[in-house]
Specification:
Blueprint: E1 6-10, H1 23-36, E2 40-46, H2 51-54, E3 59-69, E4 72-83, E5 86-92, H3 94-97, E6 104-105, E7 108-109, H4 113-116
Parallel strand pairs: 1-2, 2-5
Antiparallel strand pairs: 3-4, 4-5, 6-7
Amino acid sequence: MNHKPRVIYVTPEFSPLAKSGELADVAASLPKYLSSLGIKISIFMPKYRNPEIESFPKELVMRDLLVPVGGEKVKASVYKGELGKHDIYFIDNPKYFWRDYIYGTGKGEYLDNDERF
């Protein structure tokens, strides 16, 4: 039996949907390369509050998913869209991802980045 490999690719940034620096560009190039080798990629990233993600076509596929974070369980929703040949999943939690910047402001990083990522 000949099965194509599958990869779940998790990233905090992915160009052109969320970009803070060059990580977004690198994150976007790796799935293109891997798919050229016949590898099926599913991309997972935060559903940030930004115009690029808000306007991106997607559908809710899971609601009230309980995610272990430290000693707690945090609710999240999952949205699915398609980006070229790839499925892309957005993890939605307003507490962690509905902010003006990805990692922090000009005054410093968000204090809960260890929980968020």
